[in-house]
Amino acid sequence: MAPTQDMVVFLDGEPVALDAAHVSVFDHGFLFGDSVYEVVRTVRRRLFAFDPHMERLEGSARGLWLEIPWSRDELRAQVERAVSLVKDPGDAYVRIIITRGVGELDLAPDSCKRPGSVIIAKPLPVYPRAWYEDGIAVQIVGTMRNPTRAVSPSIKSGNYLNNVLALMEARRGGALEAAMLNETGALTECTTSNLFFARGGVVKTPALDCGILSGITRSILLDAARRAGVPIVEGSFAADELRSADEAFITSTTKDLVPIKSVDKKNLAASPGPLTKKLMGVFAREVQQRMTQASAIA
Q: Does residue 219 sit in the same domain as residue 94?
């Protein structure tokens, strides 16, 4: 087995040295953002929710008429091998990217003969404890979420400029994360996370048809929360409903649940609020239960 290292990169299924981890400038993923990707993580050195992530990756690829030349089992084997080579004994962050491949300097992908793959594995980021104990600042930004008739929100593509601009806008306003609206002015999601808020004992989250990506953590939490008897409503909500919420939080694969302390520089009533705290516990128990059935990566 190759020696472990702080970060591991696979290109087209094989490990490469970091100083040799290059993608061609003629790869359409680089030229046009013509690629799809997923981020998966481990929990206690076990892959968490790998199959739902792969289902979403495969769906994203179908949305781009992009054929993935590796089976799900082959990708799992590559991911597990990459994780096994990460030096840090804790949990891992893994990004899986499927690109259109190398072709002519032309939007049409006809000249791209074979898709390429990139797998990057590294230690899972450890976020500040204060985020979870005190909450984060969120700004509702003017950068609009891509309209659903332009780009399907179900496609997790490498073209992230919309989200980059939204995050830059929020950071310049002093917030850590941005909440984006759709073309009707309804809440959608944040730049790398899904959005939840509560008022009057009911948790609310934008529905898929508002133009959001179906987050894996979001889906797992919705199912677990409903089984736990927590009232949750998916729907279309105006920006002011977030601003006037009793409490709120975001969800993502790498961050789990993070409370929101303020929206547009105005503090919410509680951070984390009682429902946020309850759901943090519900999600932690769900993860624990799922991990008892998963195999550890050697």
A: no
Whole-number pLDDT of residue 127: 97
Residue identified by tokens 């279309």 is 236
Q: Provide the β-strand partners of residue 199.
A: 202
Instruction: Tell the residue number behind the tokens 């899972």, with chain if given.
Output: 124
> What is the spatial distance between Cα 254 and Cα 215, in angstroms, rounded to a whole number?
12
Q: Give pLDDT tens digits for 185-200.
A: 999 999 999 999 999 9
In a shared domain, residues 141 and 275:
yes
State the DSSP string of 7-63. SEEEETTEEE-GGG----TTBHHHHH--EEEEEEEEETTEEESHHHHHHHHHHHHHH
Supply φ then ψ for residue 18, to 5 degrees. -60, -35
Is 153 a member of any domain? yes
What is the spatial distance between Cα 270 and Cα 18, in angstroms, rounded to a whole number?
A: 45
Asked if 61 and 100 sit in the same domain, the reply is: yes
Is residue 297 in some structural domain?
no
Return the number of other C-beta atoms located less than 10 Å from residue 32's C-beta.
17
Q: Which domain holds residue 210?
A: 129-289
pTM over 0.85: yes
The DSSP bridge partners found for residue 291 are none
